[in-house]
Amino acid sequence: MKSIGILTAGGDSPGLNAAIRAVGKSLINSYGDQVIGFRDGFRGLMENRTVRLDETALSGILTLGGTLLGTSRDKPHKMPIGGRILDMSDAILQTYHKHHLDALVCLGGGGTQKNALLLARKGLNIITLPKTIDNDVPMTEVTFGFDTALGIATEAIDRLHSTAHSHHRIIIAEIMGHNAGWLALGAGIAGGANVVLIPEIPYDVKAVAEAIRHRSRAGKNFSILAVAEGAVSKEFAEVTTATHKAKFKAANKGQKAEIKLRIQDLEHERTEHAIQLAKTLEELTGLESRVTILGYLQRGGTPSAADRLLATRLGTACAKMIQENVFGVMAAIRGDQVVPVPLEEVVGKRKTIPLDHAWIETALSVGISLGT
Ligand code: F6P
């Protein structure tokens, strides 16, 4: 009988409980193993805070949102402890060995893959599963959580249509996705948004205003914009790139610290981006503008059927990989298959939307403006 640890890390995502259940049930039922959950991601692992995941604990959780284990964004090698940032990897190794674990399963997004690789390099048997509503984990076709969030964002756009139409307004729906626009583009196409702005394509605000005026001239006095939270104007993108380059070239520590502060200011400016954009569009088009930030609604609640299925497929395949001693990998979706991908091939990349992706052509073909 093997002992397997499991944790969830990073932002939560619909389907986490379905995945925990799938890993746990197949390990217990098919292979006779025992499963220990660690609370609140890598912090709980470091602090040895456990939950016994037996059959009873794994029952009735398939449809629940969030994660029964709790989560955190703590990193093993950079953990805030008593006002200091410390490398706690050794404490994590101790917990792993204390429980005589044969493997540790980490459910998470891009950051979690990186932390998991770090622990794999220290000799732990690690397997990860890709979750995030942003769908930006590389080397897997899809991550669980995305489909649920896509449904929520699409429904929001549907609902915003009738009120935008009634009031002859521009309504901006700000959709999650700091670095990748999968959710905004997917929901924008599915919900029939008129403009979609994504981080991959810096926009020209004049082009956005023109797309809205074009609709007004055709008698459509309202517009819906699906805007990813990481979308930026061309000017903002240029300033950001130049600032990051300057940081790279900084001559000394003082200069670097100064530029870091400038980057923080830019990040702050970006958080108010949708509100600023609404004001500018109101000025340029003469149409009243409003903003709806969908925020955490997109991450909460029960997972869709597709996410439950995906999480269950990944979880059961992960249990099988453990039996086959396949470690240091992420279980990834490739067509009908779940395949192990070495963590080295996952870490350090981000799956953004390629500019020649079919969804971009699709959006343009139905007349959606991408702000260019
Ligand atoms: O789960 C991914 C994500 O939702 C991003 O789209 C978003 O920027 C981020 O998490 C925010 O999460 P938190 O506020 O929990 O750090």
Key words describing this protein structure:
45% helix, Rossmann fold, 372 residues, binds 6-O-phosphono-beta-D-fructofuranose
Description of the molecule:
The protein has 13 helices and 13 strands. By secondary structure, it is an alpha/beta fold. The chain folds into 2 domains: 3-144 and 303-345, Rossmann fold (3-Layer(aba) Sandwich), CATH 3.40.50.450; 149-299, Phosphofructokinase domain (Rossmann fold), CATH 3.40.50.460. Helix 8 (234-249) runs antiparallel to helix 9. The longest helix has 22 residues, at 146-167. The protein is globular, with a radius of gyration of 22 Å. The chain starts with a strand and ends in a 7-residue tail after the last helix. The mean pLDDT is 96. Bound molecules: 6-O-phosphono-beta-D-fructofuranose.
The CATH architecture of the largest domain: 3-Layer(aba) Sandwich
Mean pLDDT: 96
In CATH, the topology of the largest domain is named Rossmann fold
Task: Estimate the strand proportion.
Answer: 15-25%
Bound molecules: 6-O-phosphono-beta-D-fructofuranose
Bulk shape = globular
Secondary-structure element series: EHEHEEEHEHEHEHEHEHHHEHEEHH
Order the strands across the largest sheet as they lie in space. Answer: 3-2-1-6-7-12-13
Q: Give the termini distance in whole angstroms.
A: 59 Å
Q: How many individual helices? A: 13
What is the total number of structural domains?
2
What's the CATH class of the largest domain, please?
A: Alpha Beta
The largest sheet is: 7 strands, mixed
